[in-house]
Write a structure and sequence with these properties.
heterodimer, A: 149 residues, mainly beta, 1 helix, globular, B: 136 residues, 67% strand
Chain lengths: 149, 136
Amino acid sequence: MDSRLLMTLQVAVGAVQKIGAVPHGTRVTAPITDGTFEGPRIRGKVLPGGGDWTLLRADGVLELDLRITLETDDGALIHMTSFGLRHGPPDVLAATARGEHADPTTYYFRTTLRFETEHPKYAFLNRLIAVSSGDRRPEGPIYTIDEIL
Amino acid sequence: MRSRPLMTLRLKTAPLQDIGAVPRGTRVTFPITGGSFEGERLRGKVLAGGDDWTVKRADGAIELDLRVTLETDDGALIHMTFEGIRDDGAPAAPYFRTTPRFETAEPKYSFLNKLLAVGTGEIRADGPVHVIEELL
């Protein structure tokens, strides 16, 4: 599988909404308040209003369902969605939950992403599949996003 | 992104169902009648009854939405889905990529519940073939 860097994305998370125990697991929604993204072909900021709808499953795996709007530095709006899985050793996950930073190679945090835009300059995003590695940091997650070639 | 082979999936399809022009594009459904999958850690057959629900968009790209049930050679059932994009007009070569996901109750294969994967698809004379890799 060949891939190349599409962008690095950092998002800021607001106060989480603990929906609680639902039939599929434990649901927590994290509003996205801000952020930035940067790559060789694209850069800009994350608009407030998106969110990450997470579900902790019975097997300990966290499903992440992120939807945000990106605004490029030349004014294009891009709808982005990302579906991810996060799991790892309990002590590592507990440390990140306390706001500590853990080496991202010590746990699994991967997502698959899709983009939609009207802007011709960025229309290539409509036609690709991307994957990311996440790094959960106290100030908000950082995603290194690669285009699948 | 690092990855490693998970399986090669071969699908057999019945005559397509041309739903036609719908608001999102041109919808065509491919019933899946069988197939096989093989990798280092699992192998078996594809059960009849799944489908790939496709929509060709106004920009020419085809969106895929597949659901099938896999049965391993030792009798485990695995629910598999993928979404994908097929762009036959891509500049370099046809682009056909998918993001499979798996659900199973069988402990031996529960690693599938915890991984994300990417598939590279190809339409061959005897049906679609997807080379699927696990994201590490």
